[in-house]
Amino acid sequence: MPRQFKLSKSKLLAYRQCPKRLWLQTHRPELAKVDDATTVIMASGTEVGEVFRSLFPNGVLIDDESLGDALASTREALINAPNVPIFEATFEANDVLVRVDMLAPNQHGYELVEVKSSTRVKSYHLDDAAIQTWVTQNAGIPVTRTAIAHIDNSFIYPGEQEYRGLFAEETINEQVAERLPHIIHWVRDAQSMLADDEPCIEAGNQCHDPFACPFVAYCVPDVEGPEYPVEILPRSNRLVATLKAEGYDDLCAVPGDRLERAIHQKVHRVTKSGQAELSDEGREIARSLPYPRYYLDFETIGFAVPRWAGTWPYQQVPFQFSCHVELAPGVVAPTGFLSTDGLDPRRAFAEALINAVNAKLFADRGMEFNPMGPVLVYNAPFERSRIKELAEHLPDLAEQLLEINERMVDFLPITREHYYHPEMRGSWSLKAVLPTIDAGLGYDGMAVANGGMAQDAFLEMIDVGTDEGRKEELRQGLLDYCALDTYALVQLVEFFSKES
Questions:
Q1: Alpha helices, DSSP H only, in 309-467?
Q2: Do 420 and 277 touch, CB atoms closer than 8 A?
């Protein structure tokens, strides 16, 4: 008789995504590589669950680490506290074990609620809740309603730890009922697969949908391929699939007449020639920018559970900016702002920003000029949106903030239209462009080297448990990273301005 493997909801969901993922998770777990983004998502989910439970202060939490103890504690809670919600209620049936986010009594039995940190019900949530319901019912609990509680992004946090209204519930009885007859087959097929050799499944969309698989590096090892694969063509998934089906892996081998879009033709042409292209029009745009020039970049943080009154779930709240002010050709003065106290940063951020882009910080140097020069950013929609939100929140500063948006010049579309280097490999991100204009500029080796790391550093810096030495280290890392973003933009505009 084949060995029976214990399954859980997460394991069955892994099987549904890709049988090979579950096999590796069970037999070769040491091959998994969990990225930082996954860790952040898990931490956010934990916080969301804690806040949800706080809305039902009379509930019972099953927090035993041992599954055997958790099963026993759940049985006791059902007997001793029959009229209150049970959190993390633990059940086992048909070799599948689940922990239910909330099991609450109702008039005809129980309702099962799964809590999600997303702002809507997603398709894989339905499988998730169906598995929970199936096991719970087979354990003898009459589940009469199944629901998903997700974040309501119309919620505005009033402060004082008042989170009623943060969650919206959607009943999904009908969708669960459609899935219930199939779950026994999922379980049997997963058991059979686990008892066999490693399944042979090629990498595909399932490697990233609905979750990033931690075994991608194992399933898709680095292999020698073309230096410039067809995948570098930007925004071209369908075209790339067609070219690969026709046997084209190397972009240089693709006939030029197969590419219709101008941006694809440029990438193909430059890649084949090996020579970067910068148009005369691009040079003229850069040279025509008046002084003073303000090079600006924001860092933001978004919480599933809002921390500051007046903010909403996942609102991107700016906590830092860097601004390099080019007063005249070659005369550059850096400034910026970083919130370090953990309080709502928006007013202090806005006031510092208004001062920085009007050269008021340099008035004591006796310089006389019109301060209202262009504000240069890389990907303006993001900064414009944050400034608009600040203006709505701070009406007394709204006119000055919105005036910044009117002065804003986005250098990303200018770069995309007028410059390309083979080593950008289809990307116009600042991190891709920067090494092509100056090999000495880059983010490698920095304590904070990307936006995700900046958010992590900010959270650690404002945590009350972080010691002062570590806080200073994180503060400096954030300052260095954000300043490099704006310094890089200074260098890019200077590069465009040079004589050909």
A1: 346-356, 380-393, 398-407, 411-418, 430-437, 451-462
A2: yes
436 neighbors 276 (Cβ within 8 angstroms): yes
Query: Is residue 404 classed exposed, middle or buried when 0-12, 13-18 and 19+ CB atoms within 10 A define those classes?
Result: buried
Tokens of 310: 């007046």
The answer to whether the peptide bond before residue 292 is cis (omega within 30 degrees of 0) is yes
Query: What residue spans in the chain does CATH classification 3.90.320 cover?
Result: 7-194
Residue 413 corresponds to which tokens in the numbers above? 């579309």
Cα–Cα distance measured from residue 375 to residue 313, given in angstroms and rounded to the nearest whole number:
29
281-497 CATH fold: Nucleotidyltransferase; domain 5 (3.30.420)
Helix (H, G, I), strand (E, B) or coil at 327: strand
In the chain, residues under CATH classification 3.30.420 are 281-497
Separation CA 407–CA 112 (nearest Å): 53
How far apart, in whole angstroms, are the C-alpha atoms of residue 296 and residue 420?
23
pTM exceeds 0.70, yes or no? yes
Q: What is the pLDDT along the chain (500 residues), one digit of tens a residue?
A: 456 788 999 999 999 999 999 999 999 999 998 776 666 676 778 999 999 999 999 999 999 999 999 999 999 999 999 999 999 999 999 999 999 999 999 999 999 999 999 999 999 999 999 999 999 999 999 999 999 999 999 999 999 999 999 999 999 999 999 999 999 999 999 999 999 999 999 888 899 999 899 999 999 876 677 999 999 999 998 999 899 999 999 999 999 999 999 999 999 999 999 999 999 999 999 999 999 999 999 999 999 999 999 999 999 999 999 999 998 888 898 999 999 999 999 999 999 999 999 866 555 555 555 668 899 999 999 999 999 999 999 999 999 999 999 999 999 999 999 999 999 999 999 999 999 998 888 788 888 988 889 999 999 999 999 999 999 999 999 999 999 999 999 999 999 998 76
Residue 237 host element (H or E): helix 237-245
* Percent helix, strand and coil across the chain, each to the nearest 5: 50, 15, 35
> Tell me: domain 7-194, CATH 2.40.30, correct?
no
